[in-house]
Amino acid sequence: MSKNFDVVVIGGGPGGYIAAIRAAQLGFSVACIDEWKNAAGGPAPGGTCTNVGCIPSKALLQSSEHFEHAGHAFAEHGIDVKGLSLNLPQMLSRKDTVVKQNNDGILYLFKKNKITFFHGRGAFVKNDASGIELSVTGKTNESLIAKQVVIATGSNARALPGTPFDEKMILSNTGALAIGAVPKRLGVIGAGVIGLEMGSVWRRLGAEVTVLEGLPTFLGAVDEQIAKEAFKLFTKQGLGIQLGVKIGTITTGKKDVTVEYVDAKGDAQKAVFDKLIISIGRTPNTIGLNAEAIGLKLDERGFVQVDDQCKSSVTNVWAVGDVVRGPMLAHKAEEEGVAVAERIAGQHGHVNFNTVPWVIYTSPEIAWVGKNEQELKAAGVAYKAGSFPFLANGRARALGDTNGMVKFLADAKTDEILGVHIIGPSASELISEAVVAMEFRASAEDIARICHAHPSLSEATKEAALAVDKRALNF
């Protein structure tokens, strides 16, 4: 016998579980279907982000940064560390504990909000006058009837053609987070967010890391000035980054992986690695949804086709997050999840893509919101730029972390902030001030006139805003 709900959410990642919670807050009867399993086979909601993405990668980034600081930076602070050693199993265990805490937190939130959770794989069965029927395949099979359905099934790592992931030698983000011993030679194909973050983790722990990127430019989506600074700092740290390469044959042996490629000069090269991480993007996770059963339209790449309200081609079926157009970011998925729940309730949910922040959690961190210089130039927008280096910031000096800068871009006539770009300590936290400012359509002068605590890293934000008008006070 089928179980009836007002709203059924397929997927328990950031977009899905947040949509379920907001729908429940609005008074709907809600169910969430999610198939992620923990090591014991139990439910592990949170999607890629919680299980093999944002959360575990940040745990390892933090642990590996502590290790690097203990080995190299503590002496400058008068802290002598003798006999430093790496306990990798404990580091990985801590990462797993952090993941489980987040899994359990989501299950608690489901219970708190009276959301019915089904552990299994959700798929469409049919759509008729009684509602939208879905099946749940798991330890126990269920049949659900929904008035409204929200698809939040996320994405999967994209493999190179002919080179499937085995998560032992050829690794996606999943395998990259669970390497049992530090590889002597680590190859990374793709110099995007995942490639740089995972490359940074294992470099800090002792691996010789080579990053092979097909594009001729480094971090093409990042402001060019910030990207150049990042390239300089990452290569100085020891990441071997090669741009403009063309990957050829990849051969997996018993103990190593051989990558043949053509470098930017056109010369044939060969590199041998103990492990190879492939991070060349992600694909929407729609296989198995049985979309055709209800006439749900997918595009040629497998994304659910939606309008600007996240409505699909089928009435009362919505989709959010990585499975639809737009940036594949957990917080973008969350905002869409909230907006859809509110639209179902007849409210006016809103998501402003122009104020979605982006972050790369390397050291230094990179964060930005809005337009970069190359985008403004291409669009013919007249703008003013102002920047301020952390080298001239008192708190950064006290921290011993003075790399990077804050950069403001503002409209030449109105002074409205068009974009803010940061590379440096705590960039992921500092960017929030810029997001708030841009949501309220603030000017650079507005930020320049706000009192910022001293000494703080946020003073670099104020100084960069002052620099737009060429009146920075400390540089």
Automatic annotation (TrEMBL):
Domain Pyridine nucleotide-disulphide oxidoreductase dimerisation: 356-465
Cofactor: FAD
Note accompanying the cofactor annotation: Binds 1 FAD per subunit.
Stored SUPFAM superfamilies: FAD/NAD(P)-binding domain (SSF51905), FAD/NAD-linked reductases, dimerisation (C-terminal) domain (SSF55424)
Database matches in Gene3D superfamilies: 3.30.390.30, FAD/NAD(P)-binding domain
Localization: Cytoplasm
Protein name (database record): Dihydrolipoyl dehydrogenase
Source species: Actimicrobium antarcticum
Lineage: Bacteria, Pseudomonadati, Pseudomonadota, Betaproteobacteria, Burkholderiales
Recorded name of the encoding gene: lpdA_1
